[in-house]
């Protein structure tokens, strides 16, 4: 699966992609104070209009991502995720996207999985960008 073929999970992210990517970038750079500010802005944007279960699940997942990565607890999923293994990331993206699009899940769960899919999509694009920049042997 190439990056061009990857579509946003559920195609329903409730905030501008640039703001979401900024949040993920701050987390990746371990700038947690800036990430918290970004998360607060995301939360405000999400609450502006029609705050529903999908959006609540989405924001809770973002908060969970921040807490897990900030804790640096090696027993958590995200702290053990190899962000350089593109094929593995694509598998996780597929699983999270599938759950985000599954009508059998509650809206809260679909929002939660959608946020996780967005984080993994960010990681895929970042890993691919690094791979393109690295010198070939």
Helix content: 55-70%
How many alpha or pi helices? 5
The count of domains is 1
Rg from alpha-carbon coordinates: 15 Å
Structural class: mainly alpha
How much is the average pLDDT? 87
* DSSP, total strands: 0
Which short descriptors sum up this protein?
mainly alpha, 5 helices, 137 residues, globular, 0% strand, 66% helix
Summarize the structure.
This protein is mainly alpha-helical. It has helices at about 15-30, 30-50, 55-70, 85-100, 105-135. Helix 1 runs antiparallel to helix 2 and helix 4 packs antiparallel against helix 5.
Task: Give an overview in words.
- The chain is mainly alpha-helical and 137 residues long.
- Helix content is 66%, strand content 0%.
- The protein has one domain.
- Helix 3 packs across helix 5 and helix 4 packs antiparallel against helix 5.
- The chain is globular and about 50 Å long.
- It starts with 16 loop residues before the first helix and ends with a helix.
- The N terminus is likely disordered.
Task: Give the SSE layout.
Layout (H helix, E strand, L loop, with lengths): L16 H12 L3 H17 L4 H19 L14 H16 L5 H27 L4
Helix pairs in contact: 1-2, 2-3, 3-5, 4-5
